[in-house]
Amino acid sequence: MDAVKRSITLIDLIASPTQAEYLTNAGYSLTYDNNIYRNVDGMTVALPTIGSALDTKECTISAVAIEGVFLSHLSNNYPFSSVKVVIRELDMNIDTGAVEAERTLFTGLVFQSAPAPLIGHLQIICRGWKYYTDTTAGVPCTEQCAWSALGARGCGATIVAEQHVVDSVDGVNLTIVGGFTDTTTSLFNKGYVEFCGSRLKIKFYESGSTLQLDKAPPSDWVGQTVSIYSGCDRLLSTCRTIYDSEDTFLGLGIAMVDYNPFYEGA
């Protein structure tokens, strides 16, 4: 007589080695691959259809009970640099409890979370890797550098990193205690602030001890020591004056004119 099997779903939500959540619809919590998967009654998964195009179809995980620090952060706009999503399906032998087959149904990143606070549930919207590789093709007429990363993994320019205590948070503005050791003008512009694996981009910085970020940092960052990394706006002038790395500039070095050549003159 053939063994009776059942299929269960495992969901990995991973922001960092210390910030992760593992969920299942098995009806009970279980341990698999050295991770403890918490059972979530009523949780459903809607997988996207499979296609060959660079489409933006979404995977939706619904009715996730908001329990624990990680899911609370995910439901409250806590800034994660990214949250990786892996959804797998296991065929389990009911008699022995042994896993007889494993299939990966989806991999990607969390795109959006939609909490329903009155019922304590969270809907998680995910998009696959295709979405994140769907970029505009062509060569722009611009003086912006084409390197995708600053530092050893990119143009080779030296990244400056400093650690400072957060003095205050006011909306998207973060102020550090004291000042920076390296006071080069605009050095930290377009860089990022990191704390416990979470990164926030520095939208604008010129000088002083206040950084304008692209999102409001959590208020509990006040009093904590954060790491602040220098950045680059990919302009030739920045490459030349801040990093003295013009020989590695990967751009045409041609700026768009500030007038319409069809009916305007220089």
Can you give me a brief rundown of this structure?
This protein is mainly β. 7% of the residues lie in helices and 40% in strands. The chain folds into 2 domains: 5-132; 161-231, Thrombin, subunit H (Beta Barrel).
Secondary-structure map:
Elements: E1 5-16, E2 19-24, E3 30-32, E4 35-39, E5 44-46, E6 58-65, H1 68-75, E7 84-93, E8 99-116, E9 121-128, H2 129-132, E10 161-170, E11 173-176, E12 192-195, E13 198-204, E14 210-213, E15 225-229, H3 236-241
Parallel strand pairs: 2-4
Antiparallel strand pairs: 1-2, 1-7, 3-4, 5-6, 6-9, 7-8, 8-9, 10-11, 10-15, 11-14, 12-13, 12-15, 13-14
Protein model, in words:
- The protein has about 270 residues and is mostly beta strands.
- It folds into 2 domains: about 5-130; about 160-230, Thrombin, subunit H.
- The protein has helices spanning about 70-75, 130, 235-240; strands spanning about 5-15, 20-25, 30, 35-40, 45, 60-65, 85-95, 100-115, 120-130, 160-170, 175, 190-195, 200-205, 210-215, 225-230.
- The strands form 2 sheets. It has a 9-stranded mixed sheet. The chain has a 6-stranded antiparallel β-barrel with strand order 10-11-14-13-12-15.
- Strand 8 (about 100-115) and strand 9 (about 120-130) form a beta hairpin.
- It is globular and about 75 Å long.
- The termini are far apart.
- The mean pLDDT is about 90.
